[in-house]
Amino acid sequence: MKHIAIVMAAGSGKRMGGDIPKQFLLIRNKPVLYYTLKTLEESFIDEIILVTRHEDISYCEDEIVKRFGFKKVKKTVPGGAERYLSVYEGLKSVEETDSYIYIQDGARPLLTEDILLRVKESVEKYDATVTAVESKDTVKIADDNGFVADTPLRKKVWNAQTPQAFLYKVIKAVYDKLIEEEETGKTFNITDDSQVCELFSKTGVYITKGDYNNIKITTESDLATVEKILENL
Q: Which residues of the chain carry a pLDDT beneath 50?
């Protein structure tokens, strides 16, 4: 069984408010995406599929993959209009279907081998797993009018991260089903990959403990936080 990482780097950077996608912003003179790929390159992962915007393919291949010598990046494919559609493009490009798939945000530069090893153990045992950390805060569920509708038990609330890993035949089947359902006119608010598995599969998604440092860069302050963490490593 091969272990294949699909790295999502197709974001446009709109939420950061700048022209440069967050995965290409620099930390210590290296793009955010470099750190994600470096950890995967140095791990047990056999192959990396990089998904990015069509207009960023040349940049990724020349200025990141070739420049830093990432040998495990076997292909770079164009993504879709939404993140889940980009994931689907990555899944369709997988040639080794007898494999485990690790779907990783390119804008999570503090991924570690320890996290990857825990995810590997979980996916080999359960066929589907999401990396997550226990919520430090009490979570409120709001109604349509902005009032509190419910307060779930904090000990049962987890904040999802990546990687999220799946047996290939499990994740490909549920994504096929999602696309099929959308073609009939149905709409789904998809925010992560384990959600697709929850919707269209009876395979339970196991929670693998992540790391509070494994943050996704979405704001300027996140960049500063990552830089500070890297200084202390």
A: none
**Cα angle 40, 168, 218; round to 5:** 50
Sign of CA dihedral 189, 192, 193, 198: negative
**What CATH number is associated with residue 205?**
3.90.550.10
Structure tokens at 176: 């096929």
pLDDT at 233: 76
Q: Are 50 and 65 spatial neighbours (Cβ–Cβ below 8 Å)?
A: yes
Block residue for tokens 């899944």: 91
- pLDDT of the residue at 11: 80
- Which residue segment(s) compose the domain that 113 sits in? 2-132+158-227
Q: How far apart (Å, rounded) are the C-alpha atoms in residues 57 and 66?
A: 12
pLDDT for residue 16: 54
Q: What is the pTM of this model?
A: 0.95
Domain count, the chain: 1
For residue 157, how many other CB atoms are within 10 A of its CB? 15
pLDDT at 232: 85
- At residue 124, the pLDDT reads 98
Provide the pLDDT for residue 176.
98
Whether 204 maps to a domain, the answer reads: yes
Residue 114, domain member (yes or no): yes
Of 159, 168, 165, give the one whose Cα is nearest residue 118: 165
Q: Is the residue at 171 inside a domain?
A: yes
**CA-CA-CA-CA torsion sign (35, 41, 46, 49):** positive
Tell me how far apart the alpha carbons of residues 139 and 110 are, in angstroms, rounded to a whole number: 25
Q: Which DSSP symbol is given to 154?
A: G
Residue 88 lies inside a defined structural domain of this protein: yes
Residue 52 backbone phi and psi in degrees, to 5: -145, 175
